[in-house]
């Protein structure tokens, strides 16, 4: 479970923003909504995190930071662009200032890649927290080099951070017992200044790097880093290749979309096409004539399903786009349900539907706001004083009590 995110000089976030979502120990247990950070941990974090705020306030920036970290760890070695696919804050003072990103999350600590049992994973020595740090150096409008990259761990989340690996600028990469580098000296020399240690070593079968890279593959989202968005076509092709997902999709469509009996994929001269069966209609409807809301839901559904099946993180920007407000809490509830979410997947989402606040606890709510100089601030509702469990979050948010609302006029 991811519980902490730090962002500085990244898109609309200029100054360091720290989002620490650990639920205080004195808060009563809310088991369907909170999860242990790692098995046996006393610290908890929400299974669903929802970001609210005006247009352009920084919600997408927060999600983009998470997506970028996963992309960098997994794919940066193969990237051939002239500059890394991210941006620093757009003012003169930030032009050559470091971009700083960091995440902390709970996880099994064994990076050997050897098969393990649940009993082994649950032992005191094999669970805890990781902290990943990444500093990028902008120069002349481009972001081409890493000045610092490090992964650290705490066994059982206690004590000081211990190095897994660390790399600073042109210095040699330092490993550890958890991240041994014996036999990989020639590969280390091939690490480019704009690529991750993990992304590079994983291609050369470094065991620990392969484990980390595989883990980042369980981040699913609609925030694209370096690819062209062809979401409609890509979704139909994905459904054509994964009939089991179509079965799951039809089960949900019949529950939440009035009149849609199901979708099926047919092959045409131009490739796969999606057709919708509607109650009372003579012919199936093509994708292009289906409602925008239904198509939006179908584009999002595989990402959420994959996260739930693999125990990953679903990062969904504007989850409420064209989706009925009554459907939103239903999707969030999937992450509460231990039958649908047996591996502890987590949802990070942005939305504008303030009515969802009626269905959320304060530990699940994050606000983004922007000042008159274009700088985003990010804060949890837990950081706002005197918020009671019984408060009407929807009413108070729209009343301006928590900030992060549009200023009209």
TrEMBL record:
The keyword DNA-binding does not apply. Residues 50-89, 273-358 form the ATPase AAA-type core domain. GO terms for molecular function: ATP binding. Keywords: ATP-binding, Nucleotide-binding. This is Energy-coupling factor transporter ATP-binding protein EcfA2. Signal peptide: none annotated. InterPro entries: ATPase_AAA_core, P-loop_NTPase. The keyword ATP-binding applies.
